[in-house]
Amino acid sequence: REFADRPKKAAMPDGHPPLRGLLSVRLVGDHIPVSGLVLVSDKLDGGEFTETDEAVLAQLAAMASLGLQQIQATILAERRADELRGILRSVPGAVFVAHDARCREVTGSLGAYEIFGLSPENHIGAGVRQKLCPRLIRLKHGGRDLSPREMPIRKAAEEGIEIRNYEMEVVYRDGTSRWLYGSAVPLFDEKGKPRGSVGAFVDITERKRFSQELEQRVAKRTAQVEEAYAKLAKKEAEVRMISRKVLEAAEHERKSVARDLHDALGSNLSAAKLYLERGLQETFGANPPEWATVAAELVKDSIEDVRRISSNLWPAALDELGLAAAISTVLDKAAAAGGFSVEKHFDLASEDLVPDISMAVYRIAQEVANNAVKHSKASLLKFSLVREGEGLRLSASDDGQGFDLDEIRMRSRAEEKRLGLLGMTERARLTGGWLQVLSAPGQGTTVNAFWPRAMRW
Predict the structure, then answer these.
(1) Strand partners, 445
(2) 7 has pLDDT over 60
(3) CB 342 within 8 A of CB 335
């Protein structure tokens, strides 16, 4: 094409020499976009451009495109490096960048340099650190010193693994220290091999000190509480021992009074009854006066009262027949008095029981029977007493009206009933066992008790 007469149409400025010919090739970037044209005008021989000329120009354009891409990549890399330096200058905490797998050259944020006492002109590489860090003694993790290869950024860089939630202590020569917490991640080359790492850590010294102080306070308070608890437990053991001794003394006194009633008063009343009956027979024959009959009945009732009181104070059946038979008698009498049925199950040898526990079990059974008669309005009472290894388990339940345990504990006018429940619980506790009462209105009442060591050794 001819451009001699119209140079502007060839995108040339005014005054440009006339063009006889023009060849152009577009610049194309493979990875980084580039734009532009390579223009060639006016062959020296004055001839027209050929396909060979165009191929040569295309090669020149490709070389130019590659050069431009390299220039742009360098500019972009400088920008990214400048951005990274800005981040490292402004980021809080300590950031470490290892540029090789062995961490011979490590750069970092201002916080990282401050930790090692270095200026940003130095790097934090492995050999340099020992020469330029007079403040630093060692790094510790889990209470032990870290070797260079155990450093989180070194471990991430060499092994290609992520180190997460890592705590370490930086110890200085002057005896001070600080705590760091953070993570380290590996960097990989184009072949997927570790080529370095990046680690980011924050200073948790204040939080750590506060945590340690809190732990010390908690430990001190815990020791004080444990000491107070030990004193309280000792006092409780002393009170329990005293209560047990009082209970033993009371039972001994009951037995003594029962024996005196039976042996002395009971015998005297029996003798008086015989003399009275003989005197009435000799004096009035078969038709004694009414006052004489009433007197004889009073003496007879007094004898029965003595036997009943004596039995309540100390059940002779417990000594003569054993625990199971004595409790069975109590339950049968309660069933007759209360108009309900009773189911009994015993599986133990009374002679194997500790005496104190045997008496406690009998008294609890008495209370269960009395409550069934007085309060339950039950039709059936089930009672079980069985041996479990070295222990003894008592279970009693009725189908009566039940009651509200909380209400019973709160109502002052139910003092008698509350003392009955409390008495059962205390008897079990003072003899090394436990007792639980379960009840609700309309759901009957259940008493469970257990003594883990009820058998004689």
Answers:
(1) 398, 439
(2) no
(3) yes
